[in-house]
Structure formats: C-alpha cells, structure tokens
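Trying the structure run again after the queue cleared.
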Amino acid sequence: MLVVSLVPDVFVQKARPMVYDEDTRMAMLLSVKHVDRVILCGGLGPQAVIASLKPDLYVRGFEYESDRRPEVELLERLGIPIRYTKKLDYPRTTEILNRIWQAAP
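Done. Tokens:
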C-alpha cells in the first residue's frame, strides 16, 4: 500500500500565491495509479504520520537528501529505512511558473 502524506495549505510558505490548493494536490496524487491513499500531515512535519502508520519504507524528494530533516531521528529510532527520489528531467511547477513570469513583459 502506498500512502502519501501531504503538507496542508496552512503550513505551505510561498513568496507568491499557491497554484494548487491542498484539495487539488490531494486529487492529483490520488489519480496516480499506484497511490492508494493521501493524508494531510497534522503539522509542519510528517512525524505524527510516521509514528501512527509506522511504514515499512519512507520516501522523500531528492532535494532533501543532503538535509537532516526532523523526522530522520524518529525514522532511525523506529528502524524505518529512508529512500530519496531521483531528480527528474522535466521541470517542476515552480520552474514552469518562473519561466512564464520571466517571459512576461
């Protein structure tokens, strides 16, 4: 079973308005074939979700690989391995929007 935890809008800090609200982000993730469930984190980090679900494996985005995130200590204590995604060759939403804003007159 693949469960994806999502940061709620209230905890997302962006310099500009968000493109996708949490409901839209949840729906997009649920549309991915192998995602079974999407849940909102109850705080800034996923510690409560990790402690509750005790997953067999925890996966984070590639951009966090060099950081020691707060949840790492909990994962180590619970014996849950951490893996990181690979950087993909296509641009992320933020990169696309930056290109649009830079091209605008």
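The chain is about 35% helix and 15% strand. Worth checking whether this holds up in the mutant runs.
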